[in-house]
Amino acid sequence: MDGDYAYEVLDRLRKAFPNIKFRSEVDPFRGLILTILSQNTRDVYAYTAYRRLDEMVGLRIEDILAADEERIVDAIRIAGLQRGKARRIREAARFIASIGGSMEEILKLPLEEARAKLMEIEGVGWKTADVILLFYGGKPVIPVDTHVRRVSSRLGLTSRGMGYERVRMKLESLYRPEDYMDVHLLFIALGRSFCRSRKPRCSLCPLNDICPSKT
């Protein structure tokens, strides 16, 4: 698929979802907490867990480090996988504290260096690192979640079976860096609304007439 097709997709998605915006946190560490909470759950549960953690524990690095882990587990229970997420949140706090207590220095590094540094945190993989780099560091990267992977494959922009890095690099080759945020957010919106894993709503999809996988 060429660049013209890729931008036809993006232009249509912008018209179909004109109000899709990123709800940004000012503090990158809080953003990291929210990203960890959002793993394998719906946004509504992640945001509820985030608010409860703020109320019951606090969201500063020192709050997380001072808290009993069971209290963190209880606060974020609604997000699911709460023990693993609590452990990762505490490990993230310890790591950031060990390098001076701020993520800003990491985000100032060149993209690949910043990515590698973030992935030193237990439980932070490619996607979580890339979300932080794009949303909080303004880095030119397209995070690939399950929706982005599924949508891009069905649209013929990538191929089934591609690994994370191949999907990311392929999408980044098709779009300009200033459009990476929209690509990420709008592919997710399409995946949630129409291009679902099961029972996709192809007849209602704004890309129905150009999608090679429509049913």
Short summary of the structure?
The protein has helices at 3-16, 28-37, 43-56, 61-66, 69-75, 82-98, 104-107, 111-118, 126-135, 146-154, 164-174, 180-193. The protein has 215 residues and is an all-alpha fold.
List descriptors.
215 residues; mainly alpha; Endonuclease Iii, domain 2; 2 domains; 12 helices
Task: Kindly describe this structure.
With 215 residues, this protein is mostly helical. It has 2 domains: 81 residues, Helix-hairpin-Helix base-excision DNA repair enzymes (C-terminal) (Endonuclease Iii, domain 2); 108 residues, Orthogonal Bundle (Endonuclease III, domain 1), CATH 1.10.340. Helices cover 58% and strands 0% of the residues. It is built from 12 helices and no strands. The chain is globular and about 55 Å long. The chain starts with a helix and ends in a 22-residue tail after the last helix.
Radius of gyration: 18 Å
Sketch the major β-sheet: none
Low confidence ranges? none
Order of helices and strands: HHHHHHHHHHHH
What topology does this entry show?
Layout (H helix, E strand, L loop, with lengths): L2 H14 L11 H10 L5 H14 L4 H6 L2 H7 L6 H17 L5 H4 L3 H8 L7 H10 L10 H9 L9 H11 L5 H14 L22
